[in-house]
Amino acid sequence: MVSDLDIYLFDLRGYLVLDGALTATEVDELNACLDDIPKLNPGEWHGYVAGHSYGDVTSGVNYQQIYEAGEPFEKLIDHPSWYEKVKHFVGGQNSFDSHHGPLFIDECFANFRQPGEAIGIHSGGHHTVKRNQYRVRNGKFMCGQVNILIALTDIGPGDGGTMLIPGSHKQHFPHPHEGDHRMREDASVDGIVGAVEVHLKKGDAALFVDTLAHGSAKRANEGTRRVVIYRYGPSWGNFRHGYEASPELLARLTPERRRIVQPQRLLPREPQVSR
């Protein structure tokens, strides 16, 4: 559940670190699912999992719609280590009624980062993008997007860890060095004043509002950094990249998970005959 300290730190810093969010068995199952997927380049598909990258940024390859990859990823949809916290910060419980679910996942993917790859600084409270806004009104959170980043490999110094600028979800001005570190080829957040690198063990997770200015350090070590990111927003949202859940996935999900993946009950359910 959400503690008073969670609320204080999330409001103050814009993020929480959840130690041991997944068990070693859960991490192994997720990695085994990824190992079963043939290597995908951007634009290639494996079933309903899509290879993707963010433009020409050397940030690694993403496997989008990763909850299509198997049951271990389906369990992350409403995982008890973070689900209630995310729901509290998005404010999704306030939109729950007979027609909507409490949350919506508008993007979920696995990211593979190789040596030399990184992603530059982006977002920040001075931007006016509604999708990732940070708002608190009358003691209630109404955040447009809250991310869960789960480490499937140990991420320490040199591993290309996520970097966050604490408190930047409330900033009114851009970071003066943002132009040197924004999303572009060869960009990273290494050396930007005020940023902290988040080191995680396998199974740890970082929860942060997408308004927070964030990016990553450049991976210097050998090997591959593996993370999974689920982006949650209010139930009235839509898919960020135009992907949508497959009928097969919707059919096998529990009713609770299906309401997160597809909050709206689409109408009409049956073909209508005019009279």
Taking the alpha carbons of the first and last residues, their distance comes to 52 Å
Low-confidence regions: none
How would you name the oligomeric state of the polypeptide chains in this document? single chain
User: Got a strand count?
Assistant: 13
CATH architecture assignment name: Sandwich
CATH class assignment:
Mainly Beta
What is the helix content? 10-25%
User: What is the domain tally?
Assistant: 1
CATH fold-type name? Jelly Rolls
From the alpha carbons, calculate the radius of gyration and give it in angstroms: 18 Å
Fourth CATH level, the homologous superfamily: q2cbj1_9rhob like domain
Question: Could you characterize what this model shows?
Answer:
The chain has 275 residues and is α+β, with helices and mostly antiparallel strands. The protein has a single domain (4-261), classed as q2cbj1_9rhob like domain (Jelly Rolls). Helices cover 19% and strands 20% of the residues. The chain contains 7 helices and 13 strands. It has helices at residues 4-13, 24-35, 71-74, 83-90, 178-181, 247-252, 255-261; strands at residues 15-18, 45-46, 49-52, 61-64, 104-113, 136-137, 140-141, 146-151, 162-164, 196-197, 205-209, 214-216, 225-233. Strands 1-11-8-13-5-4-3-2 form an 8-stranded antiparallel β-sheet. Strand 6 and strand 7 (140-141) form a beta hairpin. The longest helix has 12 residues, at 24-35. The N and C termini lie far apart (52 Å). The relative contact order is 0.22. The mean pLDDT is 90.
